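Build the 3D complex.
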Amino acid sequence: MKNNSIIILLLLIFIVPKPGNAQTVNWTSFGNGLKHIINLNAGFDNSATIGIGYGQKLNTSFPLLLSVEYSAPAGKTIFDDFKTKLGGQAEVVKAGRFSATVKAYGIFRRNESDYVRLLNFGSEFSTVMGYYKSSWHAAGELGFDKAIITHVQHKDIMKESYPGIKDGWYMPTGGNFFYGIQTGKSFKNNDVYIRIGKTVAQDLKNKATIPLYFQLGVNGRF
Amino acid sequence: MKPKSILMALAIVAGFAFAGCEKEIDPREPGMLVPKTVEQDPALSSISVNGTTLHAETFGNPDSAIIIVLHGGPGGDYRSLLKCRAFADNGYFVVFYDQRGSGLSKRHEKSIYSIQLMLDDLTAVIQHYQNSAGQKVFLLGHSWGAMLATAYINTYPTRVQGVILAEPGGFIWNDAKEYISRANNINLLSEETNDAIFFDQVFTGKESEHEIVDYKMQLMSAKENAKNNRIGNAGHYPFWRSGAIVAKALFEIADRDGFNWTTNLGSFTTKVLFTYSELNTAYGLQHARLVSAPYPNVQMEKIPGTGHEILFFGWDAFYPVALAYLNQLK
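Done.
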């Protein structure tokens, strides 16, 4: 990212007393009376990224967290590329230390290069299942990120090369499965976690240029 | 806020977001994201040879010595090489064609591709245009096109009467691979790299969804021409369509089988014009000497003021050198 932004976000990671993760949650360490969770993360997700998130636990009969997330890839140009997610997750199975969580998000992505500007609306559905203690957890995750509809606005270079090229809303444009593992350590009202895994296109054959994802994050609950 | 209320709010927001959308375009529809090929647009100039249809154009007197122009890639096209039309004004018959699966030529499934097939296509193109056994044939190849020209000479050393090579990556797979690695120079923290790979989460396509995978390959090429690129290109250059499947097929073949197109170059004693660019920091004299060494008779020329796209950005310096070489052999 954006050199100045990297510095600012790194400062935030180390200065903010209780960072947290709206995405990777250890429900068992979510103590009574705590409703909010903040997350800062860095890693690789179809580009080297830095992200931030916020979530709020609702007063429901089963654990339910609504969250919003923002991440942006590395680079000199600020805010030309980013990914935002709005949605929630709920713990649907709990058997002793074993827990299963389902997640559903709406996604909005922006990507701009010398050739094109893409605005994409998508969705993400995933599940995380694993072993959870109040101080640590280890889990596997599986999900599908669907790029439902994308507005494509080509730059002059593309239009000069091919005057017939069409700008507009394209649908469908793609989708990727992702699968991997995650583990985290919880202490007081904070967590540190790591996620790592692979991606594959929706046809289960083709892959992204770098078909891997990795995320190191910190959560704070308050 | 109750979950039900939040979900309703989200639904309303989503409704507004899509309400203003015009009719959606299917990215797989021909002509939307990339130009139609000769198979889809019969108005394009083409030839049918060796079981395929190639986008092809010629300039000059058909009875003059032939220059076959071979574009780069694999998967590129000849649009950025069209300045070579100038040779037609100096007594040559200039033939351009987009290689099988590339540019505006017909697409094929990945499984059909082989190096021998690409050589057979070149043989067929030569035979299509050569009017008599005495009509001389010269090859002019850029980048991958120069590699293909050398593979052809290594296989058929008596079929052409001269060759101009512009920055071939290598005639042995390891040499080519090392050059490609230097040229790509992937920095995961750079804007250019992330611009080139971020959209993998937005556009995905099967190998049979040519329009999508070709379009993705085209967008990825923005990186190689971005400011301060390693290969010295001054900017973007003209193109028609990237052939993603032919590129993938030939790279997979090279990676799996390797290649060595130098084993018979010693028998080609005609002088070869080997050019490299001043500004491509991934290439340089050292790599030019390494790659050209198997040819017994080489005229080495550095083309000033250009990067890898020598025949576009460095044309003014390249053309007199190339013309003088050809005139010696004509």
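Chain A is about 10% helix and 60% strand.
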